[in-house]
Structures are given as structure tokens and as C-alpha cells.
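User: Hi! Is it possible to get a structure for several chains at once, not just one? Here's what I have:
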Amino acid sequence: MKKSIFTLALALVALVASAQIKKPALMVVPSDVWCISNGYYTEVENMGITTKMPNYKQALQENMGLKLAIAKINDLMAEREFPLESLEQMIKNLEQQHMEDNMTTSKAGNELAESPLDEVARVAKCDIILELSWEVKDFGPKHSISYILEARDAYTAKSIGAAAGTGAQSFSADVDVLLEEAIVANMDNFNNRLLDHFTEMQTIGREISIDIKVFANNAAGIDLETEFGDDELIDVIENWLQLNTVQGRFTMPYASENIANFTQVRIPVYDERGRAIDANGFAKSLAKFLKKEPYNIPAKVLVKGLGRAVIILGEK
Amino acid sequence: MKKYLLPLLAVVMCLAGCRAVRQKKADKDTTQFRYEIECGGNAIQGTYLVKVWTYSKTASVAENQCRKNAIHGVIFKGYGGGQGCVSQRPMANQPGIENQYKDYFDQFFANGGEFQKYASIMEGTTEIVKVGREYKVGVVVSVRKDDLRKALEAAGILKKLNSGF
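Assistant: Yes, the chains can be modeled jointly so their relative placement is included. Here is the combined structure:
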């Protein structure tokens, strides 16, 4: 009897533990505007247009204020039992990955076009990016600091919340002290917004978007209006999404015979094995479903960051 | 000697009774939000500096009540910013939470209750203004908000940032 009670208790503990989901990963990065206004950027020419891309490595190597700000935010988040991912470490991992990529021949036709921020988020497997910027303002002999800390969902790039404000004017305090004061004063409001977001995510899932396209003149001879029994292919996809999204939440703002866009698709945060699901993983599940009987549709899944995937039907 | 003892005892009892009545009135004023709270300046990490204006017919009672009001304000009211101060949302921002945990908060805010651990009056900051038949007493109070939040989280009143994960 005692043995079975013990086994039952152990099973209950395991069940409770498995029901808990992993903490979202957070990372502080300097905002684009801060990097560019402080000269930490590289110019990239793309189709004749010159674009300024933030250079995080240079910013971390040359700006002590940035390191101090990140350390302070990390300290305050650790105090709330929520330590952050390190941007510096992520950059090292990214460099390692670039080195490995350069030595590997890539598959043709599946190019990744990512901004430095997308790249960092993907390698860090970050759920939330905290974008930090500040500016020193002078009022005669006094100066004060304007500070913005904005949280963005790495999956959708949507803003979760921000803490912003201008600190008190000071004759004597240096910029680092003013920055620290601003971070300490704003962190509680910021964490309240994060808590609201986490509560929402636990209730209605993580938001992604999926685009479905069809290869022109594909070998399978299908488009989104191809009929399977009483349903067209677009209805089959909608029914699958209805079953596999949290509370059946998604919207389809546009659909034609060749293209369908699904936005505000709420997917479970983690799968049954506790692994984080991103848009790519979710889209692959849909592609696998379409590949099976009775549909037998080959599909190609393209990665477009953590929160967006494109499925092209008809060929691999 | 005996003839003085009885009136003296009556006077002492009356004084003690009056004091208790004043305290009870002040407690009632707190629960009815008869106080104002504003930012008292930039504080060190882990604390808020708030200025609390408490109303009472007796200035000394109002001054005593300031700590209780400061904690009450930080938990349930929050305060506005301006002039370099950052506004803060109330710690407990779910509506009706004070009534939901009434027993806990009655004990917490009782005279000599746990609230005392989280607030200290900043010496030399008291301002007294006579408003009609009562006093409005302003005191800057330092609230140990991190410790206060942890206590409320431990009691299950506030959600932890990592709750559910």
C-alpha cells in the first residue's frame, strides 16, 4: 500500500513538473537609433540602396555606458528570478556559426535574408528582445537623461511594452549615474508590462504568421482551390489550423487560389515534449500533414525569422 | 489619598480611551483612502520615496499614520510622476484584490502589524497644514518595495514575474 502511494505521489510530482513551461528567454540589445546616432553601424548596399545596420559588437567593445546599462538591467531582472541572455555571448556564438557556415556548402534556393537583430534573436533563441536607448540632454550647466526600454516579441516584432521617461536634471551627476537611476526607477513598470504579456502568452499562446503559396505550374497540379471531397485545399488548411492553434485563434486577411496569408496565429508556446515551438516548427507540422494521404502534396517550408514562415505547395 | 486616586484613574482611562478613538478614526481614514500620495524623490535601489499627506484632527496621529498610508498607497494606489520622478503603477493592479484578501490585509495593517517592517519616516520632512478643523500632515516615507513585493508574492497575493514557467 505504502509503495503504491509513493509511486502515485511521484507520478503526480512528475505531472506537475511537466505541466510547467520553460521561462521565455530575454536579451537586452541597444536600439538601432542608439547604435546609429552613436556611430556603431556598418553601411550595407542592397539593390542600390545604402542601409545602416547596427554593429552590436563594436558598441559593446567601445561603449562602457552600454555595458553598465545591460549589467544593471540584468541585475534587476535576476533579482526578480529572471536572468537575461548575454548579447556578448550571443555575438560570439554567431561568429562561430558564421565560420561554420562559410565552410559548408549551402543548399541552393533557400536564402535567408535576416537583419542583425533577427540573426541574434534566432541564434539566441530569444523570445523577447529588450531594446535600449538613451540620450543625454543638456540644459545650460545641467543635464538629464531620456531613457527608453522597449520589449519586443522576437516572433512578431510587436511591441509588448515600454518604460520611458526623462530623469531629473542634475549639475553634478555623471551620465552613468543618471542612466543607472533611470533604469532603477523604470524597471518596475516595465516588469509589470512583461508580467501582463506572460499571462496573455500562457493563456492564448504565442503569435506567429504563416503565408501559404503555390508553385506555378507545379508537378502535383494543385492550387488552394483544388477539391478534396467536399472541401477545397484552403478549407483543409483552415480546419487544421482550427484544431492546432490555441483556442482556434487565427485570422486569414487574404486568400486567393495561389496565396493565403494567416496572421495572429496563436500557437502553443511549447510542444508536448517541452520544446519551444516557433513558426518554422509549426509550419513543418502543417507541411507534414499535407504530405500524408489523402492529400499527398509536397511542400517547401522557408524560414523567415522566429515568427514567420512561408509554405510553398506543389513541389519540394 | 484615596479620594484623589479615583478621579486620577478616571482621567487616565479617559485619556487612553480618547487616544484609542483617535487611532481608530485614523485607521478608518486610511481604509477610506483619506490620504494623498505623491513621489518623494529618486530612491536607492529596492525602495520608493513617497510623500504621503494624511488627514487627522490631531497632527501627531496623522504623522503616525503616514507609514501605514504609504504602504497602502504603494500597494493599492500607485502614484504620479513629474519633475524627474517616474510614476509607478500600484503593486496590486487587479481590481477587488483588497477585498479578496481582506483578512490578510486587516492583519497586515493592524497597529503594530507587519506593514511597519517596510516603511520608515525620513526625519525632518514633516509638513503640517491646517485645513478647516483638521490637519493635513505631509511626511516623506521610504518604502522597501522589493521586500514588500516579495512578502506579498510569498503570501500568494501578487504573481511572481516567473510564475507559470
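The interface with chain A takes residues 42, 44-45, 81, 83-89, 93, 145-146, 159-162, 164-165 of chain B (CB under 8 Å). Residues 2-31 of chain B form the longest helix (30 residues).

User: Great, thank you!
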